[in-house]
Design goal:
Number of domains of chain A: 2
Order of helices and strands of chain A: HHHHHHHHHHHHH
Shape of chain A: globular
Structural class of chain C: mainly alpha
Number of domains of chain C: 2
Shape of chain C: flat
CATH architecture of the largest domain in chain A: Orthogonal Bundle
Helix content of chain C: over 70%
Oligomer: heterotrimer
Largest interface: A-C, 81 and 81 residues
Number of strands of chain C: 2
Radius of gyration of chain C: 24 Å
Largest sheet of chain A: none
Strand content of chain A: under 5%
Chains: A mainly alpha (about 290), B alpha/beta (about 270), C mainly alpha (about 290)
Number of helices of chain A: 13
Structural class of chain A: mainly alpha
Number of strands of chain A: 0
CATH class of the largest domain in chain C: Mainly Alpha
Chain lengths: ~290, ~270, ~290
């Protein structure tokens, strides 16, 4: 009797839990499908060649996002160029050099703190430090440097993860042949962690593409067409900031959704790229 | 998809690397975000007319623009409100470039079409809370406004004499947000620069006068504010900046200002 | 001679890497110092108690008052609400993904989750403004839908990816022997997952929740567009302003004491974040030791 009762209770428990899990998974996927569909339906029809290939003109009442595309590229390139050596270097220090446990835990704690700081605070400090204190004013370089701080922990973490997968025997082998530490790092360790660096770059690019709060106060919202060199020192909006500006200041929802659709497509590409890269390197390492 | 987009961009980037402009041929402006359309159009036609001259505009807000002139960080400051006495005492001069109407907007479904300034003030201070009292349908009025320190809010509140007394339901941070919020809610009322008002909302008549270029110009539409070019009294402008200043305030520029939705003084 | 050169090179390289390693610490110090330097003056002028516990914020009035209690409470309520809605959904999805889902479905749902993480917050705000706010207005028959509830829903969706990813990792790290033992004793798979795997992964799941708290309290752009942004004391259908949005919405135009007060708000927000990070670190450490 009691056994039967218990099993009914247990069956109910299993059933309820399963249903709840299905509902939750559905509730997670629902917003994704809805948002992607909503943005694509509203945005894709507005993507035209003119939009992509011109700069905005007030005189002819035309909106073009070419300057924003270029600014995005400038900011991504600049941040990545700076953040990769810093982040990878920090990871190598932690994994290869550091012997003081206390120092390691301080650095790791700092990295964790950095990744938890909201972008609005990065924006404020970037504005105070890079724009005002360093005299860079509102410029792409100030925005890029702010993003370097934001993405440092990402590159550091992915590089560290892949450093751990470099077998200790490789290092020992190289040391055994009489190589100095720096040589071992250059020839054995660095090639081994290239996948982590690339993954870190891809993740950082994704985060930079989606960033608005940190860039509004540091890189500004100008839509001027610039070349790379003069672009660095002038104010310029990335695609996401342009999306913000067009949606909010100008009420141009067609344009805003077009940019949102482009950003979503880029997000999908980036996610796929990150997955492909990690798959490719995993297979390579197994061989 | 991605590559086809990137290639022209990269080509442009490469092409642009070759050309570069000198800084004493540049006029730098800084200030009000509400003046974006007007100043953008002026800058564009200016650089078209005088080849070799560059124009930059940094949309930071009226307050920052005024500060930037004072500190010498830009040539001309842009303010969407008249200068305060203490700002003039610091040696700044304001030249009114144009006037901009602030439209009081409601949802197109709203039957109310005409309010007096007193009624608008009563609505915003919470004395009138239902559209019924204004001849509309029975619905609670939803007050939508701008964030503190916005030039539009400053202009609206000082003309309707409702400073610090508005009981906002939403304080939005941009013109676009206000228009969107009003267009999504049949009981909402808001205010926005006339130049930006779209078909998705209805601009009310104020004291029986509809906001148009003509009524803003002759002053019969009461809720308006100046667009001001701010310069230093004692410091001479650079040649390029002076050229731009003269051009912007000339009658030649008036149609451009009008096309951007504001009313030129000259 | 040559040997000494090599040793100096090694030392220089070591030093360079040490400096690179210390950059993160430098960044944290930089941020902390700047926020404290720029945040303290306004608190000094206003007074700590009136600043933290004042109930009215009228920064541009002729007699301004700078009380940020409404912002603090809104941030706390908003975050709590988002956690209340988001954590059960995220947690159950994570269990489903880590244990129950067939590989194909798992990869699709995980793709959707990273998609969710990759959408810029402005897009959340935009969609929220056009769909969620009018929806809440009609559903609850209130004059206006821009309120705390709208912000909570947006935040709950936005924190899902962090909660799911971290929880899935924690659940997948549970040793298979635990589960096998439970199954061998006659427990059904679902019972095993919830009574054996979940408790075993509890510190990882706790870390996921704390991470969600951090994400929710720090979000600015999306909530600014759906919450109404008025400095009211929080209520579910009240138009409210968060700590983050208080900074973001007035920063562009602010000057003088008002601007300093905004920096002070950022400092308060930063202290909250530091507290959350310390908690997160505690759970992560616990997880490693388990």
């Amino acid at each position: 009797m009691t056994g039967k009762k218990l099993s009914a209770k247990r069956r109910a428990y299993v059933g309820i839990m399963k249903t709840l899990m299905y509902i939750s998974a559905g509730l997670t996927c629902g917003p994704v499908i809805f948002m992607v569909a909503f943005v694509m339906i509203k945005g894709l029809p507005n993507i035209t060649w003119e939009l992509l290939s011109t700069s905005p003109s007030y005189l002819s009442d035309r909106i073009g996002i070419l300057p924003d595309i270029l600014n995005t590229i400038y900011i991504v390139v600049t941040s990545i160029i700076i953040v990769v050596p810093l982040g990878a270097g920090a990871a190598i220090y932690l994994n290869e050099y550091a012997s003081n446990k206390k120092l390691v835990s301080v650095i790791e704690y700092a990295a964790e703190t950095l990744s938890g700081i909201p972008s609005i605070i990065y924006g404020l400090v970037g504005m105070l430090f890079f724009c005002q204190f360093c005299g860079l004013k509102t410029s792409i370089i100030a925005g890029a440097l702010t993003l370097v701080m934001m993405n440092l922990p990402t590159v550091m973490r992915t590089t560290e993860e892949s450093l751990r997968t470099v077998p200790q025997s490789y290092r020992e082998g190289a040391f055994g042949l009489g190589a100095q530490k720096w040589r071992v790092i250059r020839t054995v360790v660095l090639p081994g962690c290239i996948d982590g660096i690339i993954t870190g770059c891809i993740l950082s690019v994704g985060r930079i593409l989606g960033e608005s709060a940190a860039l509004l106060f540091t890189a500004g919202i100008a839509h001027t067409l610039n070349n790379f060199i003069s672009g660095l020192t002038s104010s310029g909006s990335t695609l996401t900031v342009a999306l913000y500006v067009y949606a909010k200041e100008r009420g141009e929802f067609g344009i805003a959704f077009a940019i949102a659709a482009i950003l979503m497509i880029l997000t999908i590409i980036i996610n796929l790229a990150a997955e492909l890269v990690s798959k490719y390197f995993r297979r390579k390492k197994e061989l | 998809m991605k590559i086809t987009k990137l290639i022209p961009a990269l080509i442009c980037a490469a092409a642009l690397l070759v050309s570069c402009g000198g800084s004493n041929n540049t006029v730098a402006t800084d200030g009000s975000t509400s003046m974006e359309k007007v100043i953008g159009a002026l800058g564009e036609s200016f650089t078209e007319k005088y080849s070799g001259k560059n124009f930059t505009y940094n949309p930071t807000g009226s307050g920052s623009g005024i500060k930037a002139v004072l500190e010498g960080n830009c040539d001309i400051g842009l303010s969407s409100r008249a200068l305060k006495a203490e700002e003039e005492a610091e040696g700044l001069v304001g030249t009114v470039l144009a006037y901009d109407g602030i439209a009081v907007i409601v949802n197109p479904e709203n039957k109310v079409a005409d309010l007096t300034i007193e009624q608008i003030a009563d609505v915003y201070t919470g004395k009138i809370t239902n559209w019924k009292e204004l001849g509309g349908s029975d619905a609670e009025i939803v007050l939508i406004g701008r964030e503190a320190a916005s030039g539009t809010r400053d202009g609206f509140e000082s003309i309707t004499n409702t400073k610090d007394a508005c009981k906002y339901r939403q304080e939005l941070t941009s013109t676009g947000d206000v228009i969107t919020a009003v267009s999504q809610n049949p009981a909402a009322i808001g205010y926005a620069s006339l130049a930006s008002v779209k078909d998705s909302v209805k601009a009310l008549k104020v004291n029986g006068v509809a906001p148009t270029e003509a009524t803003v110009k002759d002053g019969s539409y009461k809720i308006q504010r100046p667009f001001v070019l701010v310069t230093k009294k004692d410091t001479k402008l650079s040649d390029t900046a002076q050229k731009f200043f003269d051009y912007a305030t000339s009658s030649e520029a008036a149609p451009i200002i009008a096309a951007a939705g504001a009313v030129a003084v000259n | 001679m040559k040997r000494r050169k090599k040793i100096t090179l090694e030392a220089v390289v070591h030093l360079i890497f040490l400096l690179l390693g210390l950059i993160t610490v430098g960044c944290v110090l930089l941020i902390t110092v700047y926020l404290i330097i720029s945040g303290i003056p306004a608190i000094r002028k206003i007074g700590l108690v009136p600043f933290l516990f004042g109930k009215t914020w009228t920064s541009t009035a002729s007699e301004p008052s700078y009380g940020i209690l409404p912002f603090i409470l809104t941030s706390i309520y908003g975050t709590a609400g988002a956690i209340l809605v988001g954590v059960p959904i995220g947690f159950l999805t994570a269990v489903y993904l880590a244990k129950l889902a067939p590989p194909r479905i798992k990869s699709i749902v995980e793709g959707a989750v990273s998609m969710l993480a990759g959408i810029p917050s402005v897009v959340y705000g935009l969609v929220g403004m056009l769909v969620l706010v009018p929806g809440i207005r009609k559903l609850f028959n209130i004059p206006d839908g821009a309120c705390l509830l709208a912000a909570i829903i947006v935040l709950a969706v936005m924190i899902l990816p962090s909660i799911i990813k971290v929880s899935v990792n924690a659940l997948e790290a549970v040793p298979k022997e635990y589960e096998d033992a439970s199954l061998a004793l006659g427990a059904t798979p679902v019972e095993t997952y919830f009574r054996v795997s979940v408790p075993a992964a509890r510190s990882g799941i706790a870390a996921a929740v704390v991470l969600g708290v951090g994400r929710a309290i720090g979000e600015a752009m999306a909530v600014m567009m759906v919450s109404g942004n008025v400095a009211n004391m929080p209520g579910l259908f009240e138009s409210v302003r968060f700590l983050t949005t208080a900074v973001a919405s007035e920063m562009a135009y602010s000057s003088g004491l008002q601007q300093q007060a905004l920096f002070s708000i950022a400092l308060v927000l930063y202290l909250f974040i530091m507290l959350i990070n310390a908690t997160l670190n505690f759970f992560l450490k616990n997880g490693r030791e388990d």
